[in-house]
């Protein structure tokens, strides 16, 4: 990822239009705007980014000069184990309590969610049976998935594991908002989370609706999810670029030396 900006503020409309055209010309490039207002260009590697930025500057912006940051790798955050304790968070007014635990998603489920095989739009009963049969999840839990995140489609889930809690449906949207916030900006370095399951174990709510509004519940949910992730052996996930290289036999040594310099691992080698 590289942050780009224009040297001359008058060229900003050119940058916005240039990024749109760059996205259309190369489907592998991802262009986005951070909350800080920075324009981010993400590509497959340093060379790919270099070519994209050259195209952006010379072809799509008519030679307008750019300021480019150093390239940064996008990480993901995940957890390695189930939370060591039940995590409790109290609302700012001390009248509401949330209890939660975090654990890793079953192996392979994150990939299926990202591929669109398991989505928030699926029928809960059908999805519950599929998750129970293929990933060994409890059917009851699998049917009580509140949402996926971040953006409502990501590879993290929050499950209602409570028993007979009053007014729970009223705070569901606030808990989901806190969950989306947490999965978008993880606890370690504010990167997206991946492969984490949060179980809401118990909820104690004030009887008066005015004391359990979004302003009380959203920050409480955010804190309890962060606490659950921190007690579940959190770690970073580094992206790996899967590539197939075809070359003549005499170039094999050079390919290996380049891959070793970049910490590459050869999974398979075939002669044709």
TrEMBL record:
> What Gene3D superfamilies does this protein map onto?
3.30.230.10, 3.30.70.240, Elongation Factor G (Translational Gtpase), domain 3 (3.30.70.870)
InterPro entries per the UniProt record, alphabetical:
EFG_II, EFG_III/V, EFG_V-like, Ribosomal_Su5_D2-typ_SF, Ribsml_uS5_D2-typ_fold_subgr, Transl_elong_EFG/EF2_IV
> One GO CC annotation, please?
ribonucleoprotein complex
Q: Which SMART domains match?
A: EFG_IV (SM00889)
Q: Which CDD domains match?
A: aeEF2_snRNP_like_IV (cd01681), EF2_snRNP_III (cd16261)
Keywords from the named record:
Cytoplasm, Elongation factor, GTP-binding, Nucleotide-binding, Protein biosynthesis
A Pfam family found in this protein is EFG_III
Q: Name one GO molecular function term.
A: translation elongation factor activity
Q: Where does the record place the Translation elongation factor EFG/EF2 domain?
A: 117-233
In Swiss-Prot or TrEMBL terms, this protein is called Elongation factor 2
* Species: Collodictyon triciliatum
């Amino acid at each position: 990822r590289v942050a780009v900006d224009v040297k001359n503020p008058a060229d900003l409309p050119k940058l916005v239009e240039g990024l749109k055209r760059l996205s259309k010309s190369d489907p592998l490039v991802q262009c986005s705007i951070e909350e800080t207002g920075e324009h981010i260009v993400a590509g497959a590697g340093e060379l790919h980014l270099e070519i994209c930025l050259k195209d952006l500057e010379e072809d799509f912006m008519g030679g307008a000069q750019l300021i480019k940051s150093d390239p940064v790798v996008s990480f993901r955050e995940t957890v390695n184990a189930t939370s060591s304790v039940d995590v409790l968070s109290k609302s700012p007014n001390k009248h509401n309590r949330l209890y939660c635990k975090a654990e890793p998603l079953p192996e392979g489920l994150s990939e299926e969610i990202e591929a669109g095989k398991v989505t928030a739009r699926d029928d809960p009963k059908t999805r519950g049976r599929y998750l129970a049969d293929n990933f060994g999840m409890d059917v009851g839990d699998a049917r009580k998935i509140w949402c996926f995140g971040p953006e409502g489609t990501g590879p993290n889930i929050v499950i209602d594991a409570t028993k007979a809690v009053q007014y729970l449906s009223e705070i569901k949207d606030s808990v989901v908002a806190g969950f989306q916030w947490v999965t978008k900006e993880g606890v370690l370095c504010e990167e997206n989370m991946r492969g984490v399951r949060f179980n809401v174990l118990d909820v104690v709510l004030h009887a008066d609706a005015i004391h359990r509004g979004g302003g009380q519940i959203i920050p409480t949910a955010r804190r309890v999810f962060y606490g659950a992730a921190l007690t579940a052996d959190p770690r970073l996930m580094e992206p790996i670029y899967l590539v197939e290289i075809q070359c003549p036999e005499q170039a094999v040594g050079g390919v290996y030396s380049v891959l070793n310099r970049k910490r590459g691992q050869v999974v398979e080698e075939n002669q044709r």
